[in-house]
Recover the amino acids of this structure.
């Protein structure tokens, strides 16, 4: 275990098993829809890579680069698009892939942003859900794990751009970020 991690919340085997279930569930519902899978950078890059390999079906892979304005304390949750999609999503079924749903501000903004482009449907797939922190209601169609309000890192999630490469989800020791 990394020296800055106090406890492992979800180990590699648990994450892998859950993603296999999620991939199968999505595949059953989207088999003939060729959905556009949109990973929201950067946190979701590892989840996206494992999720699409668990989906035995055609899909298009896209990346959306976003950066939050300020500290996400306002309820507008406006985010800046730093890298846009490469394709037109009008009439397409879209699945937004996130590592974590926290306040909900990022996803609620992104859903409106994507809806303006007139997709056939938009669903959210998040690996982690921290409902205690929610500020706006966001409905995630697919959820991997509901977790407590702890400072988690690893499997794509960072603190100050570190720890994204840890193969598990761990709770950061308080002294690291205090
Ligand atoms: C994280 C995560 C979501 C967002 C969720 O991204 O990937 O995009 O925060 O938080 P919210 O529900 O409170 O809006 P972050 O801003 O840490 O950027 P990163 O993915 O590049 O690490």
């Amino acid at each position: 275990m990394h020296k800055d991690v106090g406890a492992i919340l979800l180990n590699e085997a648990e994450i892998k098993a859950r993603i296999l279930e999620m991939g199968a569930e999505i595949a059953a519902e989207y088999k003939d829809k060729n959905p556009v899978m949109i990973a929201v950078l950067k946190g979701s890059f590892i989840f996206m890579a494992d999720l699409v390999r668990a989906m035995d079906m055609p899909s298009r892979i896209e990346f959306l680069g976003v950066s939050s304005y300020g500290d996400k304390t306002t309820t507008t949750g406006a985010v800046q698009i730093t890298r846009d999609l490469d394709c037109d999503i009008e009439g397409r079924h879209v699945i937004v892939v996130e590592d974590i749903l926290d306040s909900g501000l990022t996803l609620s903004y992104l859903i409106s942003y994507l809806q303006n482009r007139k997709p056939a449907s938009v669903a959210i797939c998040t690996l982690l859900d921290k409902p205690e922190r929610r500020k706006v209601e966001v409905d995630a169609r697919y959820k991997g794990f509901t977790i407590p309000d702890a400072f988690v890192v690893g499997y794509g999630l960072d603190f100050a751009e570190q720890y994204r490469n840890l193969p598990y989800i761990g709770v950061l020791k308080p002294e690291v970020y205090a």
User: Anything to note?
Assistant: The chain has a mean pLDDT of 95. Helices lie at 12-30, 45-53, 105-115, 174-177. Strands lie at 5-10, 36-41, 60-68, 79-83, 93-101, 121-129, 142-146, 152-153, 169-172.
